[in-house]
Amino acid sequence: MAFAAKLIEREKKIEDCPPIFEPKYKAKLEGLREVLRPPVKEVTIGVGDRAVTIGGKVCVYRHELTWYRPTALFFDVTDEAPDEEVMKRVKTVESFEYERIGAKIRLQGIAVRCTSGDRDKFAKMVSRISEASNLPLVLCSYDPDVIEEALIVAGKRRPLIYAATKDNWFKMSKLALKYECPLTVSAPGDLSMLKSLAATMRKLGLDDLVLDPGTFVEADMLSETVNAFTMLRLAAIEGEDKDLGYPLMAVPAAVWLNPEKNEVLVKMRESYLANLLIARYADLMIMHSLDPWVLLPILVWRQNVYTDPRTPLSVKPGLYEIGPVDDKTPIFVTGNGALTYFLVKGDVERSGKGYLISIDTEGISVESSVAGKRFTAEKVVEALKSSGVEKKVKHRTVIIPGKAARISGELEELLQGWRVFVGPKDCSGIPEFVEKVWSKEVKLE
Amino acid sequence: MVEERKGGAPKSIEELFTLLDKAKELELEDVDIVAEELALEIVPSIVQAAPPPAVAPPAVAPPTEELVKAVFKPPVGKYAAKIAVVQIGATGSEGGTRKKVIKIGGETVPPFYHFEGVLPHRPVIALDVFDSPPPLPKTIKSYYKDVFKDHVAWVRKCIDEFEADLVTLHLTSTDPSAENRPADEAARFVDKVLDQVEIPVIVGGSGNPDKDMLVFEEVAKVTEGERLVLASVTVDMDVEKAVKAIAKHGHNVIALAFLDINQVKELNRKLLSGGLPKDHLITDPSTGGLGYGIEYTFSIMERMRMAGLMGEETMQVPISCAATNAWVAREAWMPADEWGPREYRGPLWEITTGLVNMLAGADLFMMMHPVAAKTLKRLAEALSKPKAEKLVKEAVYDKWVTMKA
User: What integer pLDDT is reported at residue B64 of this predicted model?
Assistant: First the structure.
């Protein structure tokens, strides 16, 4: 029972119960899979260590449980672009890595667009990319012959086919069945057609589907896009509409269809619209811009919104030794929010070394926890005493965050014989603070 | 002390801003919503009839060339309650002297659910004006350098040039740990600015709860009837006393809680039971900037709005969001070559912080960067547009596959 409850809460997976994979339980396994099937199906694109699974959503509003399977980001290339340029883009996407709050953030795949209309050219480019990289691919063309030529060379890599439409769905469905690849159904601006296409694909035996309701980015149509995504997700989860219980594709790259002259503005638009679409349930997005300043807000928002709202990201409160500490090392106090801790840790590292005491602020930032009485003088005293740091240093000084300045008076009263330093408001100022203030004022022989 | 910098704003952002002015796609007419236009449902489109199969289909479900017919019906939620409409500013006939008033709130459905109901008022943007030179990020400072000493000009610049809906006059000079300007003097300053501008304003304190109480009392008295917004009343203040001082002069209040939905409820209940009319209350659960707690804010706002619509009295009020908190993030202001120009990162950070919270239900946005403010206003207008099914049907979307970008 306990295991069953954990399965439902999604704390455990079926894979955590090996006996059920024995042949005699086959029927039971299938039954269990059906029971546990999330209202938005999980669809895997690609093979190997870079394969990505999208969908898997069980709630509309994040606070109801958690959003699983972060939005996968695919970047476009065309079959007519120079080889060198394409390879450079592919490598950039493949090797991109940004570390934040202890997690390595990556980009997911490549969307190959057939702009040439030439099936051989397209297949050649797809083949070239598959040889150079194991990133998952989306194959983009409305011509089934073009898609098949590419599937012949890359079908085993489980690319996502884009797209089956009201005009080509029959041939596309056959390709998806033949090559066992996931398939996008696309019906821009027509949700009844989208449902109709999805229902047809299901009837034909396809279950790895992705839905594309169209990403209309112009100001006079943006609300329509937001509404379509919202309605689809509500229909899948609250309306239990099985035809629409599939991941949603969004195309922020569509800002380049009708771009204003200033490229910076278009890129900005692509960036904030991507974030709007992440907030409105996009499971996979196709992007064009690869500039770090465009991607940074998207990667941060995606990481933030896909955390478990039931448990704020935090580190264990206590004493952390950063760098080659000794008895002349400064003592810093901060909260235990994961972001706070990792930022301060990084800046203490840059300053050389430090004892870092993380007090229990329930994962909340220093500023909010000072205001909300989670970061108090009493708590600092308690953490300082119980950490045993007193025995490790010769000095009796402690540095508190600039944002906690208002507790410094009370802290000095409570900590007889200690000197309290108010550190910089932003921890990026720690190295300078240690060098110019703390080291000068605290004389240790 | 105004910091003097040579060269003004970085070229790129100036250019960006000028272009934003001209960007035709973003120039939207004011949304003037008429109820009957909006009594909409999704009209099921006709499913294309595929040609019937030439031969009778065999018995074992084979692939046929016929589409399964389907009609999409949006699941329409039912909500028990309505968010109060808060009016900011009062005209001459209403006991004030404003030429223009602003209304926020009034929702009966979740944010931008046009398929469920009408959104009576779009979210609005308030730009910050400070009574003493503030420690602003360089990317922002250059836009306001010329008006730091002339607050009326500063307000006008925000409204006329940067198209903000209203402004927040921050009385930071009243901070006891800084200039400690007396409350009555600060109130006279507000009154003087009001004399010279036509728009309604929000008045912000210094964040010191004891001093803010004195300042709010004075401002409320001196500007009686203007229906301003006083920001903010927190749990650290004598809430009942604050209500008495503010409500008796007819003003609105922003109630600021600290990322805790229970605190929001407690504080709002105290304000309401203390005698503040519901249509004079705006709630602010605290805004974590992008990367710095934004997900807490997003989820708290979503929960608050849903709870309000479902019948929770204390949440049936418009929500305020301090998008300015985006600037806490070092990604927004710190020079870092590997992240690209901070002149782009900063406004984008503020836009994103505002935008996702707009989708969560926020009605009023406190902002600093002019480009961010203008962009978010355009987005508020766009998202508030009722359905555009016809436009979408005619739009060219599928060409993204073959476009030459």
Answer: 60
Q: Strand locations in B131-259, DSSP E? A: 166-170, 201-204, 229-234, 252-256
Beta bridge partners of B253: B230, B281
Domain residue spans of chain A: 1-36, 41-305, 318-441
Contacts of A256 in chain B (CB under 8 A): 400, 403, 405
Q: What six digits make up the tokens of A386?
A: 């119980």
pLDDT for position B14: 52
Instruction: Tell me the chain B residues in contact with residue A192 when contact means C-beta distances shorter than 8 Å.
Output: 44-45, 47, 70-72
Buried (b) or exposed (e) across B16-49, using 16+ Cβ within 10 A?
bbebbeebebbebeeeeeeeeeeeeebeebebee
Q: What is the pLDDT of residues B135-156, one digit of tens each?
A: 888 889 999 999 999 999 999 9
Count of CB atoms within 10 A of residue B247's CB? 19
Q: Confidence band (pLDDT; 50, 70, 90) for B11?
A: very low
Pairing between strand A103-105 and A98-100?
antiparallel
Chain B closest-CA separation from residue A20 CA (Å) = 31
Distances (CA, A) of A288 to A123, A256, B214, B270: 21, 8, 54, 50
- Residue A251 CA to residue A286 CA, distance in Å, equals 5
A&B contacts, CB < 8 Å: 277
Query: Could you tell me the fold of the domain covering A318-441?
Result: Rossmann fold (3.40.50)
Four-residue CA torsion sign, A336, A342, A345, A347: negative
Most B-contacting residue of A105, A365, A376, A426 (CB-CB within 10 A), to test interface: A365
What's the rounded Cα separation, in Å, for the pair A228 and A405? Answer: 48
Architecture of domain A41-305: Alpha-Beta Barrel (3.20)
Reference B120, options B381, B384, B305, B313; nearest CA is: B384
Residue A154: partners with Cβ closer than 8 Å, 6 or more residues away: A126, A127, A130, A137, A139
Q: Write out pLDDT tens, residues B312-366.
A: 999 999 999 999 999 988 899 989 999 999 999 999 999 999 999 999 999 999 9
Task: Give the strand pairing for B166-170 and B201-204.
Answer: parallel
Q: What is the pLDDT of residues A62-115, one digit of tens each?
A: 999 999 999 999 999 999 999 999 999 999 999 999 988 878 999 999 999 999
Residues of chain A contacting B396 with CB distance shorter than 8 Å: 257
